[in-house]
Every structure is written in structure tokens, then in C-alpha cells.
């Protein structure tokens, strides 16, 4: 066992020295927005202890946590942490850790202490790789959890997880490739968080089956997130008989939309899809609302920060107060949502919303169900395996149906062929934020009650799809 630990440390010394430079050509898509505002071998010696009896673990599980908790996109990391802390708190029947800060935190669930070593990635791939190396090499964590950036998550998987044979629960990074590409998927790479393929497959099915739209023009940001959205929408829509009349990728922050939107008209589009984050969506919506377009706009509901900017844009174009009638006339939406606080009616979600809003002053947002479920699954894996060893936790996660999740009992299932958890998705319209939620949701628009629900068996890339490059 000592020999295995030294092997891991030696591997990380090599990765720490050469990993970033060696991957320079693979990380040029940038870190910004990789989440979408939205998975090898035996493990070596781990630092946790094990009781050796199935279902009766005791000891400590050391988890290296990698999230951005400073900078312009710190809210991504905050909600990821708040969801994860809430999942641990639910399993422990206690209140969640109140602050999103670096350092060492701990939560006791039964006889097991979950020791969290939280590090700030600043939304940087290089920083995430360096911190992950340090966590495995020097802190000797049993497993990793993170990142918000898909580029950072991919770098950590390639240069740390696969080098050191340490398990990782990815999240909320949402690029479909993380659990669909042979370069990043693996026996030790898991993701409970929803991904861009789930966004697109759900939205595409709704557009094709529940609307009269027969022609669509696809727009996306010119990096991993936007390309994943466009590629998956194209696949689903074409399979459902919807014609793709054009597609265009633009840089983040692109603002010259009038000509592109006019081009969609000339191509006969009855709907457009926008695969963008807060860096680009407001400019798109401003041009769309100020123009004379008959097609409908589809996409995904994003986080509070994106909805805040979009809501301001809608208020400028439509005037205050916003009404459901005004919003309906714009033909903006409906949109898919990975999770928002009002999309699921069950006891677990009720408890989650209450504890989360009490602890953080906000409602649970887009990433939080996936990271809650990540924590819940880790605790369940420890309990089921009777072990705190990272390799044993990974073994128990394989194919697991997660019992306690905000989407309900047994609502997330890790697929054996790629370790991505499948779960249901919903479709909702943008509506004015109600007085009930105005203090905890800082945006003028919010998701309506669900207008459709797409079952978990339809949301993820199937094992036999040509888009699935992972076969564990």
C-alpha cells in the first residue's frame, strides 16, 4: 500500500512539472462560460480508513474541492459549493456549511467525517491543475470534486486523475465531452451534474414534438460549451425530422446580431437556438427584441446572473412592469432547465429549498441539484461499500441509483457505460418573478411551473450513439 502511494506521488510530480505545458494545445477554448450559464483503473492507496464491513464505514474521507470562489464568475463556484454542502447536510440531518471560502471544512455523517479541502480555481485551467496536483500529492485526498469550467475539469482529469488514479466527481462543468469522449471519460471519473447534451436533447425533443416549428437556425458560442449545444441540438432535431437551415458560431461577447438574425429569416427559420452565456445572450436578445422577427427563440434557462441581465434587457424593450402577456408576445422561450427551485415538488426538494435559502439568502439555482446529488452519492457510496477508500467509493458509484436528490427519490442514475448520471429535465416559460421569490432571486424573470418534463431515459446520449465515445 505504501508503494502505491509513492507511485501516485511520483506520477503527480511529473504531471505538476509537465501537465500544463503538455496540454497547452488542448485548452485553447478558454475557461469562460464552460458550464453553460450547463466521466480508469484501480485506485492506489488512499488515506481514509475502512471498517471492512459493508454498510458500516467509519473514519475520514478527504475530498479536494476545486471551484471558482473569486472573480467575476464566483457565483458559479458559490452555488456549486452551496449545493454540495446542502447535500452533505441533508445526509447528516444538519445545517449546511454557511460560507463559500477556501480552507478545510468538515461534516460528520454517522461515523464518517467528510473533510473538505476547498481551493479557489479562479476559473483558470492552469490554476485548477496546479491545485489538484497539490491536493493529491501533498494533502493526499481520497478524491476530487469540481470544477465549474469544463476546460479546467478536462485538464484535471487528463493530468491528475488519470495520472494519479484518484477518483473525481466532476461538477458543475457541463461540456458533454467530459463524459462522452474517450480522452476524458474513465472508470474513476463521475458526474452527477447535468450536461449540455441533456440541455439540447431535452430542448430539441420539446421543439420537435410539442411545437409547430419545422425549421431551425442554430447559433452558438465559439468554444466547447457553444459547440456542444449546437452539435446536440442538430443531432436531436434532425432525428426528429426538423430541418436545420443554418448554423453560426460567434465569439463570446459578440454584438453585431442584426445581420445574423436577418440571415436566419432569409433562410426560412421558424425558430432559432442560442447556445450562449451571460457574455453574449443580452446582446442577442436586445437585437431580437428591437427587430421584427417572427421566429421563436429556444435554449436553456441559465443562472440568476444571466437571468438578471436578460431580465433587464426585457424590461428596457418591453417596459415595466413585465407581464406574462408581454413575455409571451416576444416568442422568447420556452427554455429547458437542468434544475431550478420551483421545478420539482417532493419532500427532499422542499427541505433543500428551505435549508438553502435560510443558509445563503438565495433560492437553489441551476447547478445546485447536480452538486447536491454529487455529495449525496458520495455519502451513499461510502455507506454501501462500508469503506472510506477512494477506489471503493468509485466502485460503489458505478451504476448507482442515488436515493436522495432534489429531483426526488432515486431520480439520478449513473450510467455504467460512461459514469454520467441521467436525470429528468423540465421545460418552462420565462415569467415575471413573483413576490414570493423576489427577495431570494435577483432577476426580473424566472422559470414558470414546468410546461413539460423529459424523462431521464431520454435526456442523455445513448450508449450506441455515434456521439458517445465512452464505453467503460
UniProtKB/TrEMBL annotation:
The keyword Signal applies. Residues 26-57 are annotated as: Disordered. Residues 60-428 form the Leucine-binding protein domain. The keyword Protein biosynthesis does not apply. It holds the Pfam family Peripla_BP_6. InterPro entries: BCAA_transport (IPR051010), Leu-bd (IPR028081), Peripla_BP_I (IPR028082), TAT_signal (IPR006311). Coiled coil: none annotated. Keywords: Signal. Residues 26-38 have a biased composition (Gly residues). Residues 47-57 have a biased composition (Low complexity). It comes from the Archaea. This is Amino acid/amide ABC transporter substrate-binding protein, HAAT family. It comes from Halogranum amylolyticum.
Amino acid at each position: 500500500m505504501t508503494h502505491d502511494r509513492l507511485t501516485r506521488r511520483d506520477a503527480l510530480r511529473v504531471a505538476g512539472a509537465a501537465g500544463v505545458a503538455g496540454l497547452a494545445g488542448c485548452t485553447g477554448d478558454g475557461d469562460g462560460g464552460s458550464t453553460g450559464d450547463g466521466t480508469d483503473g484501480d485506485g492506489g492507496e488512499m488515506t481514509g480508513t475502512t471498517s471492512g464491513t459493508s454498510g458500516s464505514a467509519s473514519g475520514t474521507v478527504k475530498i479536494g474541492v476545486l471551484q471558482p470562489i473569486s472573480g467575476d464568475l464566483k457565483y458559479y463556484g458559490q452555488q456549486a459549493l452551496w449545493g454540495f454542502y446542502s447535500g452533505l447536510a441533508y445526509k447528516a440531518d444538519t445545517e449546511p456549511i454557511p460560507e463559500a471560502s477556501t480552507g478545510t471544512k468538515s461534516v460528520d455523517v454517522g461515523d464518517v467525517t467528510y473533510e473538505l479541502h476547498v481551493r479557489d480555481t479562479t476559473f483558470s485551467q492552469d490554476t485548477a491543475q496546479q491545485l489538484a496536483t497539490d491536493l493529491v500529492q501533498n494533502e493526499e485526498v481520497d478524491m476530487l470534486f469540481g470544477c465549474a469550467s469544463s476546460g479546467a475539469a478536462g485538464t484535471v482529469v487528463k493530468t491528475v486523475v488519470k495520472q494519479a488514479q484518484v477518483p473525481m466527481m466532476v461538477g458543475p462543468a457541463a461540456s458533454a465531452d467530459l463524459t462522452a469522449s474517450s480522452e476524458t471519460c474513465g472508470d474513476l471519473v463521475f458526474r452527477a451534474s447535468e450536461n449540455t447534451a441533456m440541455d439540447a436533447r431535452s430542448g430539441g425533443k420539446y421543439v420537435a414534438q410539442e411545437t409547430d416549428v419545422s425549421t431551425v437556425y442554430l447559433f452558438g458560442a465559439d468554444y466547447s460549451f457553444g459547440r456542444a449545444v449546437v452539435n446536440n441540438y442538430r443531432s436531436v432535431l434532425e432525428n426528429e425530422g426538423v430541418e436545420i437551415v443554418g448554423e453560426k458560431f460567434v465569439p463570446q461577447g459578440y454584438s453585431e446580431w442584426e445581420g445574423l438574425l436577418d440571415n436566419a429569416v432569409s433562410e426560412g427559420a421558424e425558430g432559432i437556438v442560442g447556445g450562449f452565456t451571460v457574455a453574449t445572450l443580452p446582446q442577442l436578445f436586445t437585437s431580437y427584441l428591437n427587430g421584427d422577427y417572427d421566429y421563436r427563440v429556444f435554449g436553456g434557462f441559465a443562472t440568476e446572473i444571466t437571468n438578471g441581465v436578460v431580465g433587464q434587457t426585457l424590461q428596457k424593450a418591453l417596459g415595466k412592469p413585465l407581464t406574462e402577456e408581454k413575455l409571451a408576445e416576444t416568442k422568447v422561450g420556452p427554455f429547458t432547465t437542468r434544475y431550478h427551485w420551483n421545478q420539482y415538488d417532493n419532500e427532499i426538494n422542499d427541505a433543500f429549498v428551505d435549508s438553502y435559502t435560510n443558509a445563503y439568502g438565495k433560492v437553489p439555482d441551476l447547478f445546485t441539484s447536480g452538486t447536491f446529488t454529487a455529495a449525496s452519492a458520495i455519502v451513499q457510496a461510502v455507506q454501501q461499500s462500508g469503506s472510506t477508500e477512494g477506489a471503493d467509493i468509485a466502485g460503489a458509484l458505478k451504476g448507482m441509483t442515488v436515493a436522495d436528490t432534489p429531483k426526488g427519490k432515486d431520480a439520478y442514475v449513473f450510467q455504467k457505460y460512461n459514469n454520467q448520471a441521467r436525470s429528468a429535465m423540465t421545460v418552462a416559460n420565462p415569467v415575471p418573478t413573483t413576490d414570493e421569490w423576489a427577495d431570494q432571486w435577483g432577476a426580473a424573470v424566472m422559470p414558470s411551473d414546468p410546461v413539460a418534463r423529459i424523462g431521464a431515459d431520454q435526456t442523455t446520449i445513448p450508449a450506441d450513439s455515434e456521439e458517445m465515445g465512452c464505453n467503460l
